[in-house]
Amino acid sequence: MKELEKLRQEIDQLDRRLLELLHRRFELAKAIGEIKRREGQGPLDLSREREVVRKLLDLNRGAFPEDSLRAVVLEIINACRQAQEPTRVAYLGPEATFSHMAALEFFGHSTEYVPLESVLDVFEEVESERARFGVVPVENSIEGTVSITLDAVSQYRVKVCGEVYVPISHHLLNQTGRKEDIRKVLSHPHALAQCRRWLRKNLPSVAVEEVASTALAARWAAVDPSVAAVASPLAARTYHLQVVAKHIEDYRGNVTRFWVIGKETPSPSGRDKTSLFFSVSDRPGALYAVLRAFAERRINLTKIESRPAKSEPWRYLFFLDCEGHVEDPGLSECLEEVRRHCLHLEWLGSYPRGDL
Ligand SMILES: C=C(O[C@@H]1C=C(C(=O)O)C=C[C@H]1O)C(=O)O
C-alpha cells in the first residue's frame, strides 16, 4: 500500500509539472500569434505543426504508445492555435459522420465546428469565408472517388491545404445492444454495401433502408427502439447507443481520404503532395506528353483520374496528385512544361501528406 501511495504521489507531481509546461506552451503560442498578426500572417502553420509532431515521434524512445502520443500532441497544438485565433471548421454533417472524425483528427477538440448537410455546402461556407477550413471526403479505398468533391474543387475558389486518412470500421448500434429488438437497419448506402454479407448472414429477415449518412441513421436509432444503425464508434458515443456487434464490414483495411479545404497554402514541409487538374487537346500523345514531364523528372504520381468536363460531351478533366510542393524547384519547372501541353491547367494546392 505504501509503495502504491508513493508512486501515486510521484504521478501527481508529474501531472502538476505537465500542467505548468502546458500553460507555458500556451503563452508562447499566444506570443507567436501576436508576431504573426503584426506581420499579417494567419495563425495556422500546417507545415510547422507537422514538423512539431514528427520531431516528437522521432524522439519517442519510451513505452508510451505512439498513437496516443500523436493524439495528445495534436490536441495540445490545436489548443495553442485556438489561443491565437478561433478557427471555424465546416464538415459534412451531422455530428459523428466520418468527416467529423476526420475533422477532429486534424483540428482537435478545441475548434469550433459547423456540421453542414452536403459537400457543396462545405465548399460554399469556405469560399465565402464564413468558415476558415472545410473537411470533405475525397476517396475511399473500396468505393473509389467521391466525384462530387472532385467536381466541386474544380468549380469553387478554394484550395486543398491538407489531407487526412481515417480508417473506416462499422458497428451495429441500437438502444439496448440486443439483436432481438431490431426490426429495421438504417445507414448510408456505402456503409450498407460494405456490410452486406454480414447483414444477410446475421439479420436475414430484417429490412434494410438507406439514409443520407451513418450519423443520421444513428440519430434515428436514438429515437426508435426498433431501429439499428450501421455507424461509427463516435456515433455510438454521440447518440448514446449500445453496440450490438463491432467491425461488421465485409472488407478489412477500409480507409477514406479526406481533404482539408481553405484559402491558404502551407509552406513546404519536406513531405508534401500537390493536387491539380488539366485538360488536353483531342490528339494522339497529348496525355502522354503531360505524363512524360513527370516521368522524366522522376516525380511520383499518387493518383490520376478523369471526370467528364461537362461543358461538352466526351471531353475530360484529368485530376492528378503527385509528390512534392509547388515551391519545390523540380515540381515548379515540371508544371511549367506541363502547362505548355495542356489546354487548361489549374493547381489545386500543395499540402503536407497525411499519415496513413
Ligand atoms: C505556435 C505557432 O502557431 C500554431 C501552433 C503551433 C504549435 O502549437 O506548435 C504550430 C504552428 C501553428 O499552427 C507557430 O506558428 O509556431
TrEMBL record:
Location of this chain's protein in the cell: Cytoplasm
Residues binding substrate, per UniProt: R8, R25, K36, D45, E49, C80, Q84
Pathway: Amino-acid biosynthesis; L-phenylalanine biosynthesis; phenylpyruvate from prephenate: step 1/1; Metabolic intermediate biosynthesis; prephenate biosynthesis; prephenate from chorismate: step 1/1
GO MF term (any one): prephenate dehydratase activity
Domain Prephenate dehydratase: start-end pairs: 88-263
Entry EC number(s): 4.2.1.51, 5.4.99.5
GO cellular component, one term: cytoplasm
GO BP term, pick one: L-phenylalanine biosynthetic process
Site (described: Essential for prephenate dehydratase activity): T256
Reaction catalysis annotation: prephenate + H(+) = 3-phenylpyruvate + CO2 + H2O; chorismate = prephenate
PROSITE patterns: ACT, CHORISMATE_MUT_2, PREPHENATE_DEHYDR_1, PREPHENATE_DEHYDR_2, PREPHENATE_DEHYDR_3
Record keywords: Amino-acid biosynthesis, Aromatic amino acid biosynthesis, Cytoplasm, Isomerase, Lyase, Multifunctional enzyme, Phenylalanine biosynthesis
Residue span, ACT domain: 275-352
Biological role stated in the UniProt entry: Catalyzes the Claisen rearrangement of chorismate to prephenate and the decarboxylation/dehydration of prephenate to phenylpyruvate.
Protein name: Bifunctional chorismate mutase/prephenate dehydratase
Species classification: Bacteria, Pseudomonadati, Thermodesulfobacteriota, Thermodesulfobacteria, Thermodesulfobacteriales
